[in-house]
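Please decode residue identities from the backbone states below.
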């Protein structure tokens, strides 16, 4: 199945939710986690594909936009992970091997960015690994 512009925008939105779920899993998003995510979006995610959002900017920017919105609106880690899981289940074709590897890389980098991985982050990382097999 071919990925559409809409599906890929939703993919990046769901990734913003996933990475927020990981960062907030210990009850607090640390500045280093947020900074690390922004760095990885610029270094890796902007080069994954050529999809753009409705404003003509790279669709991968949706990761940061959604993460930032969630920071302001304080959704729970569990709810955000479930949103991601639901999108993944409905659109597995949107997750190439490259995207899956980059999701795992980004998740681990966020978890390592502030005082190493804690228990809640390890649990969520395991769920991500199991889901993306």
């Amino acid at each position: 199945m071919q990925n559409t512009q809409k599906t890929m925008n939703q993919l990046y939105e769901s990734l913003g939710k996933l990475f927020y779920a990981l960062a907030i899993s210990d009850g607090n998003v640390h500045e280093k986690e947020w900074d690390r995510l922004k760095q990885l979006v610029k270094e890796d995610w902007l080069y994954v594909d050529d999809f753009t959002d409705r404003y003509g900017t790279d669709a991968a920017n949706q990761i940061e936009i959604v993460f930032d919105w969630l920071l302001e609106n304080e959704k729970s880690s569990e709810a955000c992970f479930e949103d991601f899981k639901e999108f993944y289940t409905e659109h597995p074709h949107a997750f190439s091997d490259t995207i899956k590897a980059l999701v795992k890389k980004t998740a681990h980098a966020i978890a390592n960015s502030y005082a190493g991985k804690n228990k809640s982050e390890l649990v969520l990382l395991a769920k991500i690994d199991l889901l993306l097999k």
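Observation: Residues 30 and 114 are 7 Å apart (CA to CA).
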